[in-house]
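Lab notebook, design round three. We kept the backbone fixed and only want residue identities now. Task for the bench partner: fill in a sequence for the structure below.
Input structure tokens:
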């Protein structure tokens, strides 16, 4: 086992608080999550960073989860000028107009029912897989969805934290 801390993690551990807060806000829009992750610096390993992130995610209230979800654009409509959204939703890049329209309709129905965007860890998923996921989840209760969203946010956070730790840009 290597004792070398990845360059990006070393940088994250040593930047000033405001820069670290900004980086964490790009990972997850929940201020409570960011504060908990920030408070545990420095991290010796990526796994230690992941463990803190996971613990912080598990402790988020419904309001904190809503704040975290507000930082995510709807599937199929990544934020303009945001390379992270575009990369994570790349499975929609080749989607047909029919699939995009269907997903928009499902997103709107989901948002009407649950009061927030449909959230899924889209990395590596096709447009069809995302459509099928929203179809399957739209019949869940709000309580079931809140816990699924918590898990999906945790997956997204890990991917984004890994990029920071490895020193990858955006």
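Proposed sequence:
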């Amino acid at each position: 086992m290597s004792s070398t801390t990845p360059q990006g993690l070393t940088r994250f551990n040593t930047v000033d608080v405001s820069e670290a807060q900004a980086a964490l806000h790009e990972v997850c829009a929940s201020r409570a999550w960011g504060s908990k992750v920030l408070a545990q610096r420095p991290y010796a390993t990526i796994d230690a960073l992941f463990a803190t992130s996971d613990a912080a995610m598990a402790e988020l209230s419904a309001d904190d989860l809503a704040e975290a979800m507000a930082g995510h654009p709807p599937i199929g409509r990544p934020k303009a000028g945001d390379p992270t959204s575009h990369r994570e939703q790349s499975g929609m890049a080749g989607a047909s107009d029919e699939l995009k329209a269907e997903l928009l309709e499902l997103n709107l129905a989901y948002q009407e029912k649950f009061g927030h965007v449909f959230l899924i860890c889209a990395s590596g998923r096709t447009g069809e897989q995302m459509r099928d996921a929203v179809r399957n989840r739209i019949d869940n209760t709000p309580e079931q969805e809140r816990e699924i969203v918590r898990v999906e946010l945790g997956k997204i956070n890990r991917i984004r934290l890994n990029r920071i730790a490895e020193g990858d840009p955006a």
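Keep this in mind before ordering anything: Residues 119 and 149 are 6 Å apart (CA to CA).
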